[in-house]
Amino acid sequence: MSYIGQHLPPDAFHGFTTDTFTGDGSATTFTLSKAPFSEDSLIVVVDNVIQQPTTNFTVSGTTLTIVGTAIVSGIKGYAIHTGGALPIGEASGLSSNILTKQTDIGAAIVDADLFLVDDGAGGTLRKVTASRIKTYAGTDLDAAVTINDSGAAVDFRVEGDTKQNLLFVDGSADKVGINTNAPDMFLDITGTVDAGGGSDEKLQQWNINSDNVKAEIEYLDASANRGYAIGTSSQHDFFIRTHDTIRLKVHYGGDITIGRTAADLTVAGISLEAAGTGGFVRDNGPCVIANRLSNDGEIIRIVQDGTTEGTISTSGSTVSYNAFTGSHWSRLADNSKPTILRGTIMESLDSMIDWYQAVNSDGTVKKEIALPNGKSVGDAVTFTHYGTEYTGVYAKENDVKHVHSKISTTADSTRVYGVFHCWGYDNIDDVNDMEIAQVGTYIIRVNKDVTVAAGDLLVSNGDGTAKKQDDDIIRSKTVAKVNSNIKVETYSDGSYTVPCTLHC
Questions:
Q1: CB neighbours (10 Å) of residue 392?
Q2: What domains does the chain contain, in order, with CATH numbers?
Q3: What is the mean pLDDT of the chain?
Q4: How many Å is the Cα radius of gyration of the chain?
Q5: From CA 388, how far away is CA 426, in angstroms rounded?
Q6: What's the whole-model pTM score?
Q7: Per residue in 340-349, pLDDT tens?
């Protein structure tokens, strides 16, 4: 067939269509008979004036929009579709614009849907149904399947109904995550895990990661003491529950509580502090039971720095307190803490010692504390007890027996209270309590000019040291009886200590 004009490209078709529209003074949009390929394939003329694409008009599908002022009523307009090139050659020649212009069917793929596939030989396209593709894929999966056989650093992810990362394989880091796309170890599980398995199951290393808390269960098989190590790598506590109740708590600082969750001596339970202190609280009955079976002997051994200092033992029905020294608390009237030589004779004063506590708001936590200057009972206080901060008030302890004392300054004093043993424990800020030994075996400081022998009774010399009593009758002024003339320690002033039994 003859053809006059420019030769058409063999890979394209061209066509022209004209749409006519009339302005009404308000409308800026008009419907075209078909969707053009783009604004550039459309010639728009208004009142015989050609309009510039995208500047004076835009197109979306079959909708032509005039940019700016609406066309005056009665004025004619034209839209001339100039056609466009549609590649019909190889698939690689298809324009992405053509693909984006297509309409999604908006429905799930069904078995009857058709696909085009290349035969892989001569470039022939074959049509195949979705069901046949599914069947072929399923048949192939019956054999061994390898994903990422080339070893490329690519990730693999499986989505669930509500979880985006039900299974995540980090190809570059060689880690697997369950319910996480950022695994930080070989297997990282976020959420609740049911290990299952039988009694012989061995968990080599499990990491359950939730809110940056890592709970590890590790089977230890490196020594004869085999077993499971359970714990966390962050500052979180470990609990053992029964019947939905916490029975044991291992605090991240190392303390252990049984029957309660805090080291609170007002609540029944056991506290084992990492520093070495044990607290036993019970509502009724004995708090600690030490039972030796079969024979007589030590029940409790008291050791200091590796050396046994005393014991509590039984012989038949008799309980013995070995190396016994009975002492009481005291304090200087001004709460000072000067150097006092051990064995120095002390006198009692006519004033009571006041001890104070910081008590939390519900009265369950109490800490012995000094009452600061300017503070009174009932004033608010913030304090720390066993690593936990509390708010509460100052309160006064109910004590009716401890009095202030001083170094004895009166010879033959009947107010002798005992001899200085040591300053009290140092975990109470600004409280300078001392221990006064009063009964049992101990030592006493003797004046440098006095010579004593076993059996001598001793009284105050009036300078903190002792002298011999005038007779051998135990009186109200008697402090001690000498057990040996062996000098245990000699001080710089010439005074010295000897073993004795105290009789205050």
A1: 21
A2: 17-85 (no CATH), 290-322 (no CATH), 326-347+404-503 (2.40.300.10), 354-398 (no CATH)
A3: 83
A4: 48
A5: 19
A6: 0.50
A7: 999 999 999 9
